[in-house]
Amino acid sequence: MPATFTCPVSTYQQFTPTGGQAWRRKKLTFSKEHTAVVVMHATEPPPLNQFPGWHRAVPYLAKSTEVLREVFPSLLTAIREAGMPVFHVPGLVPTPTPMVPTDPTWEDLQDYRSDQVFPGAANQSDVAAGRTVRRIAASAKPAPGEGIAETSADLHRLAAAQHVNHLIYVGFALNWCLLMSPGGMVEMKRYGYLCSTVRDAILTVEPATDPDRDREMQSALWRVAVEFGFIFRSSDLIRALSPSNSTSSPK
After folding, report:
1. Does residue 110 lie in a domain region?
2. How many distinct structural domains can be found in the chain?
3. What pLDDT digit, counting tens, does each position of 88-147 carry?
4. In terms of residue numbers, what domain contains 240?
5. Parallel, antiparallel, or unpaired for β 231-232 and 194-203?
6. How far is residue 171's CA from residue 178's CA, in Å, rounded to a whole number?
7. First to last CA, the chain
8. Is 92 inside any structural domain?
């Protein structure tokens, strides 16, 4: 019998819900042998006193310290002890991409966006300086032998080599990098992967006018649940992967 684990997850009934409840909890069975965790863009938050402009432009940075400290260690330990692969997409090295030719109007529009949209004229120097010293957070560092990918093709090669077809994403930020960056869900779904996430092991970029609300979080979780995969919670996943709750392949 293949090694499996049964875990409650959140799913969303996108068609007309029965009983008036679209979000629902359901225990489903997953394969240990074909599931991996992807740790994506889990970098150490920059010190506020060194790079205040970066914190102004990306308000979730302070919260990421808490997630990295309180969620990542126990979750990744459980994943590794269960023998499941862990892949890393640090996002520290820009992925080279052919660029379209620019023109003065394009450059003016990009300058406007940089000054007035993101990150803001007053924040640019802090963001640029902070990016040069980014490093993977201590609780998210690859263990010996764990694969590191910079592109979607890299991640696909790592996953295919270990017969993985289900990727569970943790890191920052779900509605931005985990969806759209190289190695993110949009590109990996094109290879055929199920792409899930862990609700308390991710954060989202929120509008500057209401950074403490979770409108974007709810929208991003809905998008993952409908388009890509399933929503786990770390406590459920850790419990499901404990030796007493998992089935094992025969030796």
Report:
1. no
2. 1
3. 999 998 878 899 999 999 999 999 999 999 999 999 999 999 989 999 999 999 999 999
4. 4-99+136-247
5. parallel
6. 7
7. 10
8. yes
Number of Cα atoms under 13 Å in the Cβ half of residue 68: 22
Q: CA-CA distance, 150 to 41, in Å (whole number)?
A: 11
Average pLDDT, the chain: 93
Provide the CATH number for the domain around residue 207.
3.40.50.850
Residue 165 phi, psi dihedral angles, 5° rounding: -130, 5
149 domain-assigned: yes
Judge whether 29 lies within some domain: yes
Rounded to whole angstroms, the Cα distance separating 113 from 119 reads 8
